[in-house]
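User: I'm curious what two different proteins look like when written out as structure tokens. Can you demonstrate?

Assistant: Sure. I'll show them one after the other, since each token string lines up with its own sequence. Here's the first protein:
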Amino acid sequence: MNTERTASYLFGIDGGGTRSRIGICDGKGKFLARLEGYSTNIYSVTEEEAFGNLKSLISEALQQAGLTKEDITSGCLGSAGLGRTREQELFKRWFEIILPKVPVKLCTDGEILLCGGLQRLEGFCLITGTGSIALGRRKDCSLVRAGGLGYLLGDEGAAAWIGRCATARSLRSLEGRDHLTTMLPVILRKVCLKEPQDLVWWIHHDADKSKVAALAPIVTEAARQGDELALDILQTGAAELALLVKSVVERTPDISNKELVLAGGVIEHDEILSGSLKEILARDFPDIAVLDPRGSALDGALLLANETNSFVGESCTSRKTII
């Protein structure tokens, strides 16, 4: 085996909440291994389970690639929460056990999605799924973000926000304080409740982010049928998402790649919101090209692993998250 590391072998991991994906490539970008494993996200499983799943994922990928851990020259793990110091320190310790002396970039799932979606290391992205966040990445590896505060504080335009707005504003509509809507009976059926007032208990004591986000398709379908309130929610959401992009773009005039990738389930499945969003972006940012993802988050992790390999021993803002 290549114990003297005369060649580069990189790994990238997209650490999802339910499943994690890993890829191993050679220095020319040829895949030697690609597989899925259990979650490596410490917010979805226990820390012990996440560590065990991470070890198994890397071990199985190395076996599939016909390599040993001594062959690996760099890597990248992207996962929710990995922009925070505590999580980074935890994963640094784990990688020092699993792959000693291998430089590994630790970053958020948003950063790997940006790089994979653009197939470049510089540019912009807007991710709108259960939550929402906009990111800009500079050539010096630094990130600027807007949003991503969670559905209780923000995540405007995302599924949980849409579901929360539908619940609250349908109750307002019942009192004549908002647009007319047909959504309330559908919401009640979805959450297995009988009376509108039961939603007060549900939202405060039973609902969580995923349950509230599950209401978003009700809004999409109602909007397709011309429901006044549903249309207003989606149009408001599109305007809020455009503000996230505006915040990032205006703070990063030095980003030369004027491309914005749109990703996430809401963008993919709600043509009314995404259509309204694209109209706003075309009007307000005519010099920015808006595009669908060119690649996956796993592709982005491998691009960042390759960047990490290039930056070893050099100066880069992102080196603070490389071990």
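Here's a second, unrelated protein for contrast:
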Amino acid sequence: MARPGSLRTLPPEPLPTGEEKTARVRSMFDSIAPRYDLINRLMTFGLDQSWRRTTVASLALPPAALVLDLACGTGDLSRLAARQGYDVIGADLSAGMLAANHGANPVAQADCSRLPFPDAVFDGLVCGYALRNFTDLTVALGEMARVLRPGGRLAVLEVDAPSIGLLRAGYDVWFHQVVPTIGGLLSDGDAYAYLPRSVAYLPAAAVLRRMLGGAGFSAVGIRPLAGGLSQLVLATRAGLP
């Protein structure tokens, strides 16, 4: 038993699952939407914009291709895709994020496990920093495959962790200590304390490859960006176009 007045380290709060996770993610993004873009720029030193451009460019689709920006948030990827000449539709769980989305493309509030789109309607799909927020990743990947036409392209931008010693040490301090502090000062401290912990939801690369294959994707590639600060997941919807 700890002595009176002594400090005791409490175990971290368990990460939510199921409907509790869906409700928490929706509420969290509603609350952080007004300053989401600002904090993204600060926490990545503006590098996220370069990574987003790389994500959109990796689709390599012809002009006027129809692209879904899943978990579109405030619309960064959508706007970049539109500048590339694509026709873009955005979808997000959070009404707050959609209210902060000032892009010209149409948007829909939607749960990734039940997308309100027909089968095989999109030529491409982009998704930025959202895999770990999906309640059931297997179901979400299946929905992505369902709405993509055979031969359609998937490009997913997600967080990662560097493997090199000094870079990894700096990353750990920044992501787990500095980012929550910035978030607490400028937005919602609880949300930005939760976001680094949510990385635990991400499967290892080998597992994610298998999950994508099982969902109906082929030619899966996963590559690090900026030494592993983020990662880009690319895949093609299997089947004949």
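A detail about the second structure: Residues 1-10 have pLDDT under 50 and may be disordered.
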